[in-house]
Specification:
Number of domains: 1
Shape: globular
Strand order of the largest sheet: 1-2
Order of helices and strands: HEEHHHHHHHHHHHHH
CATH architecture: Orthogonal Bundle
Distance between the termini: 36 Å
CATH superfamily: MetI-like
Structural class: mainly alpha
CATH class: Mainly Alpha
Helix content: 55-70%
Length: about 270
């Protein structure tokens, strides 16, 4: 990390000795079109994925925790298996499923009388497609919420029922507060992972640099291009440090806002 911080203040083309340039790499970021596009797309991706992933994981965990549900082990395995699939392999499968002409998703929509979009070639649909792929792999977050639900005291539900609360109010006023620490953990880890998203968009859009209109071009892809395609290791190191500071700031913001929203029984 110390060497990376040093390189971030140098012009370092890998095959030559680094030349000290001060803060020029950091000031250059403010005028780099690819960097600004990657940062913008990444922040949009985080803003959409984190709430969707957190909310969906809680809902799916609640469904798994429902009384009388048969085959819980099967559904747990079905939700968790996508997290074990190699990212390159899953990217290739999703490229086929999201194909505008022959994809399985558009064929299913056609059967319902709906004309599916050209997911990976339309700049308006590239981001939703990537978010859909990310939501396919929320099994770990679901299982964490499921485990947290098992720890909620049944006496609280009984008391809520005596007070006349229905299922929705019990879920919102009892379940969510009791598992809020796990929800916060999932939000933080999802944010960190989303800011580092690389493999799936890189494999899907590797031939045209982030897809149509660079709508699938993310921060880490820009960092990778500068480091290993253009051999600007000093510039890429500066991007890495900016990425670290942004992630720390977002994590700190979530911790600060969670003081009034997260309930710790201890």
């Amino acid at each position: 990390m110390v060497m990376s911080l040093y390189y971030s203040c140098t012009d370092y083309p890998l095959l030559e000795k680094p030349l000290w340039t001060g803060l020029s790499n950091y000031t250059r970021l403010l005028h780099d079109h690819d960097f600004l596009v990657g940062l913008k797309n990444t922040l949009i991706y985080i803003a959409l994925l984190v709430p969707l992933s957190s909310g969906l994981s809680v809902v799916l965990a609640a469904l798994l925790n429902a009384k009388g549900l048969k085959g819980v082990g099967f559904f747990q395995s079905a939700l968790f298996l996508p997290t074990l699939t190699p990212l390159v392999a899953s990217s290739m499968v999703w490229m086929w499923m999201l194909n505008g002409k022959y994809g399985l998703i558009n064929r299913g929509l056609a059967g319902l009388g709906v004309e599916g979009p050209n997911w990976l070639l339309d700049r308006n649909w590239a981001m939703p497609a990537l978010i859909l792929i990310a939501l396919w792999s929320i099994g770990q977050a679901v299982l964490l919420c499921f485990a947290a639900l098992k720890e909620v005291p049944t006496q609280l539900y009984e008391a809520a029922g005596i007070d006349g609360m229905g299922p929705v109010r019990r879920f919102w006023h009892v379940t969510v507060p009791m598992i809020s620490p796990v929800i916060l953990f999932n939000m933080i880890t999802t944010t960190i992972g989303a800011f580092q998203v690389f493999v799936i968009p890189y494999v899907i859009f590797q031939k045209d640099k982030g897809g149509p209109g660079q709508s699938g071009y993310f921060y880490t892809m820009c960092l990778y291009d500068n480091a290993f395609t253009y051999q600007r290791m000093g510039y890429a190191s500066a991007m890495a440090w900016v990425q670290l500071l942004i992630v720390l700031a977002l994590t700190g913001l979530m911790f600060a806002t969670s003081k009034k929203l997260v309930y710790y029984r201890a």
